[in-house]
Amino acid sequence: MKIGWDISHLEFTITDYYYYGKLSHFLKECGFIVSEVKDFESLGHYDTIVFNYPEKAFSDLEVHQIESWVSKGKIVVFAGYYKNEDGVGEIINSVTKHFGLTMNLNETLDHSSEDPYFVNVVSRNGLKGVFPCTDTVSGSEVILTSSVGHVGSQVRVGTGKIILLGTCVFWDSFSLHLADNATIAKRILAGEEV
């Protein structure tokens, strides 16, 4: 499985050792081939495409290209952050709204958690995760939920799917090994059900 980690929209990079070094190492151990991709058009050569905290707006042409990739079987993952930090939620929504998925642009607090910013989540297959600093999401097929709302949804388009996650830090070096986060990350990136 080849993963194209986009950096053409100023995303957090998978090669940033401090933030995503553990994820990069974990994915390689699992047999994934992970590449940072600067050229948007080159993303079409990958099985899974990740937009992790995109800070640069997408053009209409890029939105159409994403739809084309997904309809042909690609998995496209958008991972945001709470409170619309840096306008990332609005940037993601400018793409995902075309497919019925939206970030709700809020600050989600789980008062049942030891730290209310660390939201306890459950996948529809029973995996338990911890999503720090997450937004809630709306639309289509819910894949991850919490006591304070849905934090992961997907929509199938053609033979592929678009996945929207409320946070980009559940799989960072600080959170990857909390609860079942690593398994959730692996399954999402492999296009498997969570």
Notes on the protein architecture:
This protein is an alpha/beta fold. It has a single domain (2-190), classed as Class I glutamine amidotransferase (GATase) domain (Rossmann fold), CATH 3.40.50. Helices cover 23% and strands 29% of the residues. The chain contains four helices and eleven strands; from the N terminus they run βαββαβαβββββββα. The chain has helices at 17-29, 60-71, 88-96, 181-190, and strands spanning 2-6, 33-37, 48-52, 75-79, 102-103, 118-123, 128-132, 137-138, 141-146, 149-157, 160-165. The strands form two sheets. The chain has a nine-stranded mixed β-sheet with strand order 2-1-3-4-11-10-9-6-7, with helices on both faces. Strands 5-8 form a two-stranded antiparallel sheet. β9 and β10 form a beta hairpin. The mean pLDDT is 97.
